[in-house]
Amino acid sequence: MKKIVKTNAVIVGVFLLLVGFLIAGLIYQMNYKKTDVLQRESSDGQFVVEMQQIGEPAFPFGPVSGRFLLKRKGKIINQLKFTVSDDGAGLSYNIPIFEWREDCVKIIVSGSEQEDMLYTLYFDGTNNSEKAKGYREENKEQSVEKKPEASQSVQEETGDAEESVIGETITLSSEILTYYMSLEPACSYVQGDGLEYRLVAVDRALGSSFYVLVGTLDGESCDFVNADPFNGSGGEARWLTFIDEELGFACLAKSAGSYGHLYCTRDGGESFEMIEYPEHEVFLTNGASFNPFVMPEVIYKEDGLLYLEVGQGADGDYYGEDGFCHGRYASADRGKTWEFVETFAVE
C-alpha cells in the first residue's frame, strides 16, 4: 500500500514539475524572450542598431515591448527600452524611421494607438525619448529612405542626403522575411528579368489593410523594398504594375471599393506618391453633374503615351450612350499630368 502511495506521489510530482516547466516556458515566451526584428548599419560600418522584441504583445490588443541596441564594431555602447501600442501588433509590423547623425542615431517609432515617439541614442552612451510631433516635417529633407537592389542584401545609399546624415543599411531578420514570403500578396507584378514585386498586407485596422513592398527573384526568399508604399494610408491594394524598371503604378481602394487612389513610383518602388488626374463631369437630365470615374483600373503604354482607365467603383451606376462606361485618360509626361480622352463602354 505504501509503495502504491509513494508511486502515485512520484507521478504527481513529475506531473507538477512538467506543468511548472510549461508555465515557466510560457511566461518566458510572453514576457522575456528577445526576438531579433531588424538591424541598421551606418555606411562607414562603425555603428549598428539592432531592434529586438521582448516577449509578446499584451493580450488581446495591448502594447508590445522592445529595445534598441547600439553597437560599435560589435560592442554594445548604448541600449534603450521602449513600448509600442499598435492594436496588438508585434514589432515585425513596425518599421521605424532611422536617421544617422554625427554624434547619434535618431529613431522614430509609430503605433496606431499612440503618438509618434523619437528615441535618440548618442554614441557617448546617453539617450533620451520624446514625442516626435513635427519632427518628420521639420527634418524631411534629411531623411534617408533608399531602395535596395532586389537581388542583393537590403541596403540604402546615401544619395544627396545632408552632410550630418550618414548613409545606412537596413537588414530585416530572416524570420521576418520568411514571414513576408509566407503571406499571400494582395497583388504583384513580375518584371522582364524575373524580379517579382509583391504588395503584402502586414496589418489591418478598421477594415483597412496596411502594406509593405518586397521583391523576390526565386519565389522563396525576398528582399525588403518599402516599409510603407502608401505613405501611412490604409485600404485595399487592387493592382500593381510597372512600365519599366523605375516607373510603376498602384491602386489603393478606399471605403469598400467605392473609390480609389492612384500611386506612382519613379525609383523602382523606393518611394511612392499619390497622383491626381482631372475629374470628368457628366450631366444628368435634371441638370446636376458629378464625376463617375473614381476607381483607377489599369495603366498601359501605347504609341509613346500612357493610358489610364478609370472605373466607377463599387457604387457606380452611370450609363452613357453605349451603356455602362469607364473613362480613359492619357499622359505624355510619364504620368505626371493626365488629360481626359474619352468614355468607353464596358461589359
Structural description of this entry:
- By secondary structure, the chain is mainly beta.
- It is 12% helix and 45% strand.
- It has three helices and 24 strands.
- It has helices spanning 2-31, 135-138, 174-182; strands at 34-42, 47-54, 64-72, 75-84, 97-100, 104-111, 114-122, 127-131, 168-172, 187-190, 196-205, 208-216, 223-226, 236-242, 248-254, 259-265, 273-275, 282-283, 289-290, 295-302, 305-311, 319-320, 323-331, 339-345.
- A five-stranded antiparallel beta sheet has the order 4-3-2-1-9. Strands 20, 21, 22, 23 and 24 form a five-stranded antiparallel beta sheet that branches.
- It is elongated and about 95 Å long.
Morphology: elongated
**How much helix is in the residues?**
10-25%
Number of helices: 3
Radius of gyration: 26 Å
Class of secondary structure makeup: mainly beta
First-residue to last-residue Cα separation: 85 Å
Q: What share of residues are in beta strands?
A: 35-45%
Question: What strand line-up does the widest sheet have?
Answer: 4-3-2-1-9
Low-confidence blocks of residues: 140-169
Largest sheet: 5 strands, antiparallel
Order of helices and strands: HEEEEEEEEHEHEEEEEEEEEEEEEEE
How many β-strand stretches?
24
What is the mean predicted local confidence, pLDDT?
A: 82
